[in-house]
Design goal:
With 192 residues, the protein is α+β, with helices and mostly antiparallel strands. It has 4 helices and 7 strands. The strands form 2 sheets. The protein has a 4-stranded antiparallel β-sheet with strand order 5-4-6-7, with helices on both faces. A 3-stranded mixed β-sheet has the order 1-3-2. Strand 4 and strand 5 form a beta hairpin. Helix 1 crosses helix 2 and helix 2 runs parallel beside helix 4. The longest helix is centred in the C-terminal third of the chain and has 36 residues. It is found in: Cytoplasm; Nucleus. Pfam families: RNase_PH, RNase_PH_C. Keywords: Cytoplasm, Exosome, Nucleus, RNA-binding, rRNA processing. Its main location: cytoplasm.
Length: 192
């Protein structure tokens, strides 16, 4: 679940800034996934929030909101694999649905290398058995990558193939998110 709140005036006294900012927060419910400790869960939440912020800032037209803050709050109810990618895509859709002007929707996917095969948006089990992992967030219409994390061992050809697979997945996902947003707008307009 993702909610967007704002714009509101920044409470932080950092001086005047020409652009607004995104304040991203990610929380996992206690039953979302088996975490070893609260410290590990806190680290996972902080890493996901940082990835979310970095992936979305390039897309949001924050220059239109000087000194303003948008709060993006995400709650993971069930961790099923590729959680960071799902969070980025859902938060981008929530920003667009909230009327925040974007350069483009940001869609994100995860690709893992498992047993010599590349898997797009792996399950929790597949992600845990992966030899390498690639998280890619992109604005598909421009081809601009807004966030990328690569972990594990990748050969040059494997990484290139993984990037192509991820960019293709981002393009398909962007289309699906765009259709869902348009359907939601039509539904709200029809119910008014």
């Amino acid at each position: 679940m993702v909610g967007v709140f704002g714009p509101r005036q920044s409470e932080v006294k950092l001086g005047f800034t020409d652009t607004g900012r995104l304040n991203c927060e990610v929380r996992y419910t206690s039953f979302a996934a088996a975490r070893a400790s609260k410290a590990e869960q806190g680290q996972a939440e902080a890493a996901a929030a940082q990835a979310l912020s970095q992936a979305l800032e390039a897309s949001a037209q924050l220059e239109r909101f000087p000194k303003a803050v948008f709060d993006v709050s995400a709650m993971v109810l069930e961790a099923g694999g590729a959680d960071a990618a799902v969070l980025v895509t859902a938060a981008s859709a929530a920003l667009a649905d909230a009327g925040v002007e974007l350069h483009d929707l940001v869609s994100a996917v995860q690709v893992v290398k498992c047993g010599g095969q590349l898997l797009l948006d792996p399950s929790l089990e597949e992600g845990g058995a992966a030899e390498g992992s690639l998280l890619l967030a992109a604005m598909a219409s421009t081809g601009e990558v807004t966030h990328m994390e690569v972990r594990g061992r990748w050969g040059d050809g494997e990484l290139r193939e993984g990037l192509e697979l991820a960019l293709g997945g981002c393009g398909q996902l962007r289309g699906a998110v765009r259709e869902a947003l348009l359907a939601g707008m039509e539904e709200r307009a029809g119910g008014a």
